[in-house]
Design a protein that fits this description.
It is a single chain. The chain starts with a helix and ends with a strand. It is elongated. With 298 residues, it is α+β, with helices and mostly antiparallel strands. The chain is built from 7 helices and 12 strands. The strands form 3 sheets. Strands 1-12-9-6-7 form a 5-stranded antiparallel beta sheet. A 5-stranded antiparallel beta sheet has the order 2-3-4-5-8, with helices on one face.
């Protein structure tokens, strides 16, 4: 009888101990759950604030660049297709007018997202300052001046020297002299498609980049243009986009052929078709890089 009572007491003690342990575990789990919820709410707020900051930064970045309306004062038709990979990016349009010269540039900065956007803002104002103070009669002289000034800007302190990544820009620059009906093209690591009277021509830039320690020479291609001629300037984010049935890059050849086939349409309609073409090729895959394409019709 005594043995049965002892066994009963031991069982009650074990049950009580287990209940206490369960209660402590439940309390711990509730505390952990509450803490995780606080951390989740905190992270969601940080993400929301970051998203709002990026959206506002995108508005600022877009505001400093020329609009299609601005450029239509010099060209009969204009289309700007811009699709940053991360809300803001390093691809941008630059425009400047002085005397009889109109300069249009399609620029691709190193990187994308916040670093690319910051680099693009610095480059935009650097370009404008140089254009203000020098004569705009030589693409080579202008781009060399830009290269020297920006290289010195990026390497003016020790920290930038220790940072091994090469900062720079690929650029297509068109200088339009409307009085003589001439366009002067220069570029670095970019190509421009020129369509005139249903004949296409690819204008190739030099194999260098702006932001280099030294650029020896930059070619300038002179073109006599007439009403109806079209120029397409674009960054490498378009031909480098992966997708398609075999998950390959679009490639420059496919992009150039697609643009050539659109030449009979107005640029606004072309922009719609370009958007469909790129998104169809990309499918549900991630965007590889920032995208920028500028169409200009004389």
């Amino acid at each position: 009888m005594v043995q049965l009572v002892d066994s009963s007491n031991n069982a009650e003690e074990q049950i009580s101990a287990m209940e206490n342990m369960l209660e402590m575990t439940t309390e711990y789990l509730n505390q952990t759950k509450n803490q995780l919820k606080k951390e989740k709410d905190k992270l969601e707020k940080i993400q929301s604030d970051l998203f709002k900051s990026l959206k506002f930064a995108a508005i600022i970045q877009e505001a400093i660049q020329p609009s299609e309306i601005d450029l239509r004062q010099k060209f009969s038709d204009v289309s700007i297709y811009s699709r940053p990979r991360d809300i803001i990016g390093g691809d941008f349009v630059w425009h400047f007018e002085k005397d009889d010269q109109t300069l249009i540039a399609c620029i691709d900065c190193t990187g994308h997202g916040v670093p690319g956007a910051m680099l693009s803002m610095a480059a935009y104002f650097c370009l404008s300052q140089i254009a203000e103070r020098i004569e705009l009669n030589s693409n080579e002289y202008f781009l060399k001046a830009f290269n020297t000034e920006f290289y010195n800007y990026l390497h003016k302190n020790k920290a930038s020297h220790e940072f091994s990544m090469e900062h720079g820009f690929d650029i297509s620059l068109l200088r339009y002299d409307k009085s003589s009906s001439k366009i002067f093209f220069s570029g670095t690591n970019q190509q421009v498609l020129y369509l005139s009277n249903r004949v296409s021509k690819i204008l190739k830039g030099d194999r260098t980049y702006v932001g280099n320690k030294q650029i020896d020479s930059i070619r300038e291609i002179e073109l006599n243009v007439r009403s109806g001629d079209i120029f397409y300037l674009f960054t490498d984010g378009i031909p480098d986009q992966f997708g398609g049935s075999r998950y390959k890059k679009i490639g420059r050849k496919r992009v150039l052929q697609f643009l050539t086939n659109l030449q009979n349409l107005n640029l606004s309609k072309q922009q719609e078709m370009i958007d469909v073409f790129l998104k169809t090729w990309q499918g549900n895959r991630e965007q590889t890089d920032d995208m920028l394409l500028i169409g200009l019709k004389i």
